[in-house]
Amino acid sequence: MKNLIVLFLSLVLVYSTNLLAQNKYVGVKTCMACHKGEKGKMVYENWLKTKHAQAFNTLKSEKSKEIAKKMNLKVDPTEAPQCLKCHATGYFPGEQMMPTNKKEDGVTCEACHGPGSAYKSKHGKDKREEGFKLGLVIGKNDETICKKCHNPESPTYVGFNYKKDWEKVKHQ
Ligand code: HEC
Ligand code: HEC
Ligand code: HEC
Ligand code: HEC
User: Fold this and answer.
1) pLDDT tier at 117 (50, 70, 90 boundaries)?
2) Nearest bound ligand to the CA of residue 165
3) Which ligand has its closest atom nearest to the C-alpha of 38?
4) Whose CA is nearest to atom 9 of ligand 1?
5) Residues whose CB falls within 8 Å of the CB of residue 100, separated by 6 or more in sequence, listed in order
6) In terms of residue numbers, what domain contains 115?
7) Which of 77, 84, 97, 142 would disulfide-bridge 59, Cβ 3.0–4.6 Å?
8) What is the CA(148)–ligand 4 centre distance, in A?
């Protein structure tokens, strides 16, 4: 019984500290600082060329306005949580962000690598394991990360094929 109480109390502790320390989205500029240019293996520049970097801009198009009209949205698509959750980063229910996270940047690094407030300066090289513990995700061949957005809830869904689609957005 005593063991059970100790177990219970430590579970409560783990759970509440996790809640207090929920990782927040910090925005692409933070990642860019170290991941651009030759030194950063051009990861930022490569991402910038993918459609993910344009995802927010797409919400300004005529086509987006038509979709929003059909769905009877009360606000412009660039303001609608129904669109932002997939066309920006950090807008799914329950997610948290810092003011530096901008919707204008579209689908950024953290949409796939996880919110970076804890791991942003503690990962990679000799801090690899620490990075993973602090929430960094490298979803090699993990299509569940993509299917958070690439699914039939997208009003324009065209299907998803990991192998083919990854080739179009890989960045290193
Ligand atoms: C203070 C500099 C710095 C910042 C800021 C930074 N990184 Fe890194 N990151 C590195 C270094 C150094 C490496 C290891 C070398 C490499 O893989 O390019 C690395 C590696 C990585 C890796 C591969 C990790 C591995 O173990 O193979 C990922 C993924 C990554 N960073 C994502 C991000 C994301 C997402 C952000 C923003 C939230 C970010 N980084 C911000 C310096 C940084
Ligand atoms: C946060 C949501 C989100 C996640 C996560 C996400 N995507 Fe996307 N993706 C989008 C949106 C939104 C677009 C449409 C961008 C546009 O055209 O404005 C898109 C576009 C694409 C395109 C371009 C499709 C075309 O028309 O050419 C490819 C390829 C793609 N994503 C692959 C992936 C892969 C692979 C993953 C997982 C490793 C992934 N995406 C994860 C939201 C997401
Ligand atoms: C659409 C999802 C997605 C986005 C957006 C994205 N990444 Fe990645 N990234 C991945 C996946 C998945 C891998 C695993 C690579 C593989 O399968 O070879 C990866 C690999 C990496 C690696 C190499 C890790 C390794 O050890 O091989 C780095 C570094 C990295 N990403 C950094 C970034 C940075 C910085 C950004 C933003 C500028 C970014 N990524 C944007 C999904 C994404
Ligand atoms: C569940 C995630 C998701 C939601 C929600 C979502 N989108 Fe998208 N959107 C995507 C993805 C992924 C793509 C890439 C193509 C595809 O598979 O639909 C995309 C592509 C688009 C495109 C480009 C299509 C083309 O053919 O050029 C437009 C326009 C668009 N979305 C508008 C919107 C609007 C407006 C809303 C809100 C009413 C919205 N989307 C909500 C995920 C989403």
Assistant:
1) very high
2) 2
3) 1
4) 124
5) 26, 27, 29, 30
6) 23-169
7) 77
8) 12
